[in-house]
Amino acid sequence: MELTPRERAVVALELRPPVPGLVPTFELEFQLTEELLGKSWHEGEEWKDASPAERDRMLHENAELYVQVAEELDYSILMLTYAPDEEGLYRLASYIRQLVGDRYLLVCHGDATYGIPSGGNMMDFVVDLFERPDEMKREAERRVKERLERSKRLREVVDGFALCADYAFNYGPFLSPKMFSEFVTPFLAELIEGYRNMGAYVIKHTDGNIMPILDQIVSCRPHAIHSIDMQAKEMDIKVIKELYGKEVCLIGGVQCSLLQTGTEEEIIENCKYVLKYGMPGGGYIYSTSNVAFKGLPLERYMLILEMRKKYGWYDEEGRPCPIP
Fold it and tell me: Which of 177, 180, 212, 161 is CA-nearest to residue 114?
């Protein structure tokens, strides 16, 4: 019996032997709906003055658009971001369930750990880490507990959570490995354990060169790590797969920078590389290294899906097709 898109994602997230067919795919966000389908997400200021009836209509339309995008692009996971608040998110997920049941794996934001601070408060954040470390740890603990408590109701309608605090720049982590182990790792582990205890899947997203802290992130037991940002120094999906492919599912690898400025040949070679080294043994979900962002030519994004259809197959024995 053919697996549903959701079931294909679960096979990868649970590191099961791959099943025959195409490697699963998704994006944290797909922002090219106008170009693909002639429709736009309801977002931002639209929610501000909407009446309850208008708000409900927009949530229904966003739910329908999520399903249309998934069907058009063969996504296995829907990352739900286009909702005004947590109540809207709950209803959005419920409306998608009404449309397609459990056909897709539904996830939403769920991080609570310290990421790279904004430019406006970066210095204050750094000073606080050195001058008020115990208070910063208590705040980290409070944030985790609050997030887990708030997520209990969302877990009724979603399958998992994407943790989207960024930890690194292209050249390396914002915090040293030692500081990361003190101010992030124990709280990330607690957050992931809490979600796992709810029966939820956990995808940890972070851009940049995370190699100096990747062992710590993996030790926190997320089901998957996104986005294997290969434009960053030292990030190579081949190396990461060899080191951690038996412990955690890998997601991503297709360079957004190449989609923006690279040649078609460079994009094709990048896609072939991530499929060639990400797919063996399973535990891999194909995606870009960030999102399908507004302004990206649609044909560039469709090219990476074309490469998936050409090279992203597992045979009856679960072996990936040969990639030249």
Answer: 180
